[in-house]
Predict the structure.
Amino acid sequence: MLERIKEQLNDVINIADSCPEKYQVKCFEVLLNVLVAAEGLVPVAGARLAAEGGVVRVRPEFFARHSITEDEWQRVFHFDGQTYSLIVSDLKEKSVSKKQVKLALLLGTKKLLETGEAFVEKTELVELCKQHATYDSPNFATHMKRNKNQFLPRGKNWILTKPGESQAAEVIKELLQ
């Protein structure tokens, strides 16, 4: 099965290369997904193919939508093939409340990438804040409530809003500087 895909891949590349440059990546994505589906495999969901340095790679939709390259996001997250781990240590903030909000945004992004839902579990956020020496027990909930445009409460947990997702992308870009 993979051998047949490999044989036809050059045809897909040639067809995509014949398209105007601004349509080449999308054309390649569509044709590759058709080829993969014709072989009975499931196309990659929640991901986009991106040409980076002459190599076509699968890039999670969140990063593609916010123009974050693989080299960039890999300086903030480690991906082991199934789960993402936050690997950044310097949050580039002095304030405990701002650090907590950044960690919540990054945790929501992690969950979005893994599950498709930008869910922030309170216990997981508390543990992450403790690891980064930013846990402020008396004010923890207040820090989240102050940012209701970024986080919607879900019981004792939160979910990122669309503006929260955009802010998370900005945080990732800021951490790269």
